[in-house]
Amino acid sequence: MPHHAIARRPAHWVLACLAALSCSGCSILAYEGYEDYIAAPAVANPLSCKLLKASAYAYEVNSTGAINDPQLAKLLDENGEAYGVVNNAQGMTDQDRDAAYVWHSYNEVIIAFRGTLPYPAGGGSGEAQELSFQDWVNDADYAAQPDPDLGLVHKGFLDSFDNLWPGILKQIQGWLKADKLSANAKVYVTGHSKGGAIARLAALKLKAGRWLPVTEVDTFGAPRVGGPSFAAKYAAAGLTDNRYENDDDLVPHVPFDQRELAEMPLLQKLMSLGGNQPGDYVSVGQLHFIKQDGTIISLADPDAEAQLDDTRMAEFGQLLLNSPDDAGNTIVAAHALGDLGPTDSSRYFQAVCGAPAKQ
Questions:
Q1: Does residue 30 lie in a domain region?
Q2: Could you point out which of 24, 118, 169, 318 has its C-alpha 20 to 30 Å from the C-alpha of 131?
Q3: pLDDT digits (tens, 9 = 90+) for 338-349
Q4: Based on the structure, what is the number of domains in the chain?
């Protein structure tokens, strides 16, 4: 797989850096790290590793139709049938902005959504720059949008989901009609970055529509997608959800919740000028927080997770105070998947697929 498609530079980090810069109550001087949290050595998770690779391949999808790339079978270590979908909405001016694909091997289905398009290295073509800009604007459209099945969710992510879902669902229904899928097929939904946020919308829609039972949702560096009403519907659906987040990856913190915004009054004021009411976004799923040494903290208790969130925000502030010039590169590197090759040292890949990353 080409390296350029895996080295991600999301739009979210720009906003996240502003957050840390405007932090007035992050208790930077009291920051003590993660000593109070129980961390376990990373153990390779074959299923999550497979879904991580499936998420990475979503960045390769650039057209609607059958995918006949042997690289996908190699990544998933299994033969199957795949179908890509790119912006299935009418009247779109950014026809290549959103992408996803669905894959099956009769007993297994994977639905993977593409994350934010990286800004092209060296500037790239005008078209590539425009698509990346459109994707960034989509990320920033965080106004709450109601949906009967989803509750109040991020408008930009919902728009992206609506662009892709009809094409994905049509393909799944076609496979079902052709008896290509087992009635007991295991169904996995996944995505990296923005793709992870859309994956949660898809999982809840699948659950509400009863087309296929969702076995598991795995996301990597995904931003928040909805508020308390979405979180309540998601919890009521009983979905198994593994949420992997890296130390120094700020994308999972956006859009910011009320506690974070209370510590960042300047940013809260700037965001309110746009007419949106920020601060009602919450995280869902089981957190697996990957530390810099490759060990993992998994907390199920909301209060403990909130305390961990405070520690993480303090670390971001410390990062900017100690090395403002390197902070952006650090955040981007923490969010990246790497190239998924044998020597890939990215923490997402190392923690989920292999040994802890070396320092």
A1: yes
A2: 169
A3: 888 777 888 899
A4: 1
